[in-house]
Write a structure and sequence with these properties.
Strand order of the largest sheet of chain B: 6-7-8-3-9-10
Structural class of chain B: alpha/beta
Number of helices of chain B: 8
Largest interface: A-B, 25 and 32 residues
Order of helices and strands of chain A: HHHHHHHHHH
Structural class of chain A: mainly alpha
Largest sheet of chain B: 6 strands, mixed
Helix content of chain B: 25-40%
Strand content of chain B: 25-35%
Shape of chain B: globular
Largest sheet of chain A: none
Shape of chain A: globular
Radius of gyration of chain A: 18 Å
Number of helices of chain A: 10
Radius of gyration of chain B: 18 Å
Oligomer: heterodimer
Strand content of chain A: under 5%
Bound molecules: adenosine-5'-diphosphate, magnesium ion
Distance between the termini of chain B: 37 Å
Number of strands of chain B: 10
Chain lengths: 245, 250
Amino acid sequence: MSTRRVLATTRRVLRQLRHDPRTIALMLVVPCVLMTLLRFLYDGQPLVFDHIGPMLLALFPFTVMFVVTSVAMLRERTSGTLERLLTTPVAKADLLAGYALAFGLVALVQVALVTTLSLGLLGLQIQGSVALLALVAVVDALLGTALGLFLSAFANSEFQAVQFLPAFVLPQLLLCGLLAPRDQMATALRYLSDVMPMSYAVDGATRAAGSAGVSGALLVDLVVVCACVPVALGLGAATLRRRTP
Amino acid sequence: MTGQFSACRIQRMLNCIEVEHLRVVRGGRPVLPDLSCAVAAGTVTGLLGPSGSGKTTLIRAIVGVQQVVSGRVSVLGEPAGSAALRTQVGYVTQAPSVYSDLTVRENLAYLAVILAASPESVSEVISTVALTDQADAQVSRLSGGQKARVSLAAALIGGPRLLVLDEPTVGLDPVLREELWSLFHRLAAQGATLLVSSHVMEEADRCQRLLLLREGRLLADATPDELRERTGADDLDQAFLRLIQSGEAA
Ligand SMILES: Nc1ncnc2c1ncn2[C@@H]1O[C@H](COP(=O)(O)OP(=O)(O)O)[C@@H](O)[C@H]1O
Ligand SMILES: [Mg+2]
């Protein structure tokens, strides 16, 4: 792996995004619009908004980055640019790290925007630290990016890649604690939710918002989410082959 | 004994590409059943054959992105695809493989960093393929021929010793095609080796040597003149047909 090649890849991916202002706008604006919608949905119930808001702060960047990166990587594979690149000195890890860094930076902007909007204009109340909540959200975005890079290897078309959202993200969304508290689920579902990375992402956001300081439980959530990132990137690198049939 | 050994070594140095008993199976079908051939260093060699004859497959094996069943492919004395070759071999894929959402310059600048080539080389290759006026245009807005030249420029970054071009002139107008063939010969004169595939026999005359492929088998390895002499045909299209017929008769 080489820093020069990782940074060159990051710069290239960001340049591609810059030529596509509509995608940037969608990535940054959609979470803000959804959060605003939620705020007015629970207009008379500020406690509900305060409970759900932090979870969604963790979910939006995860979901958006998952979709965008899986499609971006798929394009690289189907357009032949990946085959060309793999005949050059670029390492698979250079490519994946470059992608993760690029979308991680976009996630940083996205999280900053939604968090500022939620805590400012929308009046989201949290007991914990804003910085910690934002950190959890950014780490979740990185997880979404890494899983998107990995799973894109299993799609042969953009249609298939987009289908990974309902197939892979939706089940995690249902079981992550957003719709029903995880400790009240049937045992089998509880176990299932325990092995889903998004559960830790959402738990982390709830804990970061719930109390100031870093509790042991929050630390566990962060460590689990952080550990999943290199694992997913490693699996992603393993699915990239220089020689193909 | 020693004489034979060194003759063998010299041959190896003169050959830029050596393929021995290469067997490639794609989709359960032996696309290249047992192929042996060589490409001499410093030449423009044409890889000709009808569509589906296995040109792209052989090229992919030479640049080291094709899974092979058995056989040996060596490039510049190294096994194909080895790390040492990754700055030495330029590859132009059949469909232009550049980022269509970047400008010409952005595409090439990225590769220049990856290949550790100088930043100046970007402007150099852009002028080599005559795209200076389009340097800051987004690739998606270029014509098919211009896109093909961006793909070629990308392969020229870093001054590779071997250039492998998969049907680089298909679909280009005659003037542009002529310009590209002149460019290929200029590059060979500067010491590069070029392997250029095509399914159009009329391009064969621009090559110093021809490898004729049909259904994954090597039909001939000859100069255009040798081919005419051997078949008694004047035009190479005819020569190719006669070769096929005599092969089937035998
Ligand atoms: N990805 C693939 N999977 C299975 N078969 C393939 C694949 N690509 C090419 N082939 C088959 O291999 C044969 C040779 O293809 P190719 O090397 O692309 O020929 P050419 O470049 O001469 O047109 C064809 O019969 C084609 O159908
Ligand atoms: Mg082909």
